[in-house]
Amino acid sequence: MQFDDAKARQGRQPEKRRIVIGLTGPIASGKSTVASYLRERGADIVDADRVYRSLLAPGSELARRIVARFGPGVVAANGDIDRSALGDLVFQDADALADLDQITHPKVVDEIRTMIDRSNAPVVVVEAIKLAQSGLASDIDSLWLVTADEATRLQRLMTRAGMDEAKARARIAAASGRVPDGIRVDFAIDNSGDIGATLRAVDDAWQALLSDKMDTRQHEIVPTQEEPS
Predict the structure, then answer these.
(1) Structure pTM?
(2) What is the CATH number of the domain that holds 137?
(3) Number of domains in the chain
(4) What span, in angstroms and rounded, lies between the C-alpha atoms of 182 and 190?
(5) Half-sphere exposure of residue 105, counting CA atoms within 13 Å on the CB side?
(6) Which domain covers residue 56, as residue numbers?
(7) How does residue 2 score in pLDDT terms, banded at 50, 70 and 90?
(8) Cβ-proximal residues to 175 (8 Å cutoff; 6+ apart), any chain
(9) What is the DSSP track for the chain?
(10) Domain membership flag for residue 163
(11) Cα–Cα distance for residue pair 81/70, rounded to 1 Å
(12) Please, what is the Cα angle at 74 between 57 and 46, to 5 degrees?
């Protein structure tokens, strides 16, 4: 990590340079797999979905606003927000999803910014599907996009999340993870195939970032697909 020499010369404690990586991509592309690997490399991980869940305690302001908008049908028997019922509702209604984003994003973004500020790690990774749309693009130093083809993502949702095909397709359509025009992706990592190739691609991006070798070009880090042994 680099330090501010000017401040050091003035006799003040130099500030550590923290790097903030924004990790985004569509649902079931493998963001969590990449995030877990980066944690092993020493990064602090801030998962937007976990932050969201932490803010949904029964009686919290966020929970009250969600119930006020979507009704008691999104409340589970134990008083928690039933995220599955809420998901079934908003992922089939673009207007409802937009309303949910408008309710939740400001609170989640504020909490994420607090967590970044409190972190002592040299690298902080913010993992979020709608990272750029939420307003967090201005808080990060490098944007990483994890991708996978639709067939792979569909299979992952059906197998790992136990969704039927119709529900899985609705989630894919609603949670596209598209990066808005005008926001540069620094590294794009294809996670459609072999996990070893994906992790080598993450290593390449990590080393380039920490070596200050980034430039103004978009870096497309796409692993070579390996033949099965």
Answers:
(1) 0.83
(2) 3.40.50.300
(3) 1
(4) 21
(5) 15
(6) 14-221
(7) very low
(8) 26, 27, 91, 129
(9) --B-HHHHHTTSPPPB--EEEEEE-STTSSHHHHHHHHHHTT-EEEEHHHHHHHT--TT-HHHHHHHHHH-GGGB-TTSSB-HHHHHHHHTT-HHHHHHHHHHHHHHHHHHHHHHHHH--SSEEEEE-TTTTTTTGGGG-SEEEEEE--HHHHHHHHHHHS---HHHHHHHHHH---PPPTT---SEEEE-SS-HHHHHHHHHHHHHHHHTT---SS-EEE-PPPPPP-
(10) yes
(11) 11
(12) 45
3-state SS record for 78-139:
CCCECHHHHHHHHCCCHHHHHHHHHHHHHHHHHHHHHHHHHCCCCEEEEECCCCCCCCHHHH
How high is the pLDDT of residue 217? 39
In a domain? residue 145: yes
Strand order of the β-sheet with 142-147 is 44-47, 123-127, 19-24, 142-147, 187-190, 219-221
pLDDT by residue (tens digit) across 174-201? Answer: 888 888 888 899 999 999 989 999 999 9
Handedness of CA 48, 50, 54, 58 (dihedral sign): positive
Among residues 167, 180, 175, the alpha carbon closest in space to that of 94 is found at 175
Residue 107 phi, psi (nearest 5): -65, -45
Return the bridge partners of 47, or none: 127
User: Does 112 fall in a domain?
Assistant: yes
Is 229 a domain residue?
Answer: no
30-86 pLDDT, tens digit per residue, is 999 999 999 999 999 999 999 999 999 999 999 999 999 999 999 999 999 999 999
Token pair 């972190």: residue: 119
